[in-house]
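> example.struct
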């Protein structure tokens, strides 16, 4: 599986690769074997000695002992171009991916293995069961696709969950709405599943008349639910609210 991740990441000699959650180094070795310059990040102090021993002979691997949720990525990665290839720890997958998409523009592509539910959420489209606020926030910064499922049976010891491989390809924001307002509308829309966008805007402090007016001007029925709306729909609402346009 480690070799497959390296292949899907399309890394080769001289590529700078970020690996978060290097563990005992199986993926690290596959990436280094492809000729990449690997920055292997690992936080678990129990695993670090074994990881450092495994990669000690490799001049193209650097080990960083750090909590990936608390790394100053711009300082660590600098201004060069990067690829991220990782088997991400399940409990930090979403915050790490979102933080890197926002603060590490030098990463040109991601291939990450995550828990199946997390991966499906990252790549979900409107109407999909896993579609939520994270899905829309990802769509703001990247195209995301589930490449394949990875059954628990390929691991030892066998985990209790399935995994998926996800590819993310960053792009400039495709909507012009003010980000702070946009993300506030997204979070409000998904704060209570199966609630209407009219109720979401009212939770943000807008009265019913204003909420109905904004949604009408955006071509969105007041009783529409966030689960049915695309990034562009949320952007139209956020822009109207930012302009103070109640219709």
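> example.seq
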């Amino acid at each position: 599986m480690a070799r497959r991740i390296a292949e899907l990441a399309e890394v080769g000699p001289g590529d700078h690769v970020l690996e978060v959650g290097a563990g005992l180094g199986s993926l690290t070795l596959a990436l280094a074997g492809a000729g990449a310059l690997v920055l292997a990040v690992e936080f678990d102090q129990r695993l670090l000695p074994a990881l450092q021993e495994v990669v000690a002979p490799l001049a193209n691997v650097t080990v960083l002992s750090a909590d990936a949720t608390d790394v100053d990525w711009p300082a660590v990665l600098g201004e060069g171009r990067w690829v991220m290839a990782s088997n991400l720890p399940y409990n930090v997958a979403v915050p790490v991916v979102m933080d890197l998409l926002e603060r590490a523009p030098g990463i040109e592509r991601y291939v990450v293995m995550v828990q199946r539910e997390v991966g499906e959420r990252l790549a979900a489209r409107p109407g999909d069961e896993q579609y939520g606020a994270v899905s829309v926030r990802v769509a703001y910064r990247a195209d995301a696709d589930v490449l394949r499922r990875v059954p628990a049976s390929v691991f030892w010891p066998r985990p209790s969950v399935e995994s998926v491989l996800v590819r993310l390809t960053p792009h400039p924001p495709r909507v012009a709405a003010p980000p702070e307002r946009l993300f506030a509308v997204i979070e409000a829309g998904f704060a209570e599943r199966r609630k209407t966008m009219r109720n979401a805007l009212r939770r943000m402090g807008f009265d019913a008349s204003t909420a109905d007016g904004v949604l009408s001007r955006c071509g969105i029925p007041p009783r529409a639910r966030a689960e049915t709306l695309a990034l562009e729909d949320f952007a139209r609402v956020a822009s109207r609210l930012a302009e103070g346009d109640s219709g």
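> remarks
The beta strands are 16-20, 37-42, 61-65, 82-87, 107-115, 142-150, 163-170.
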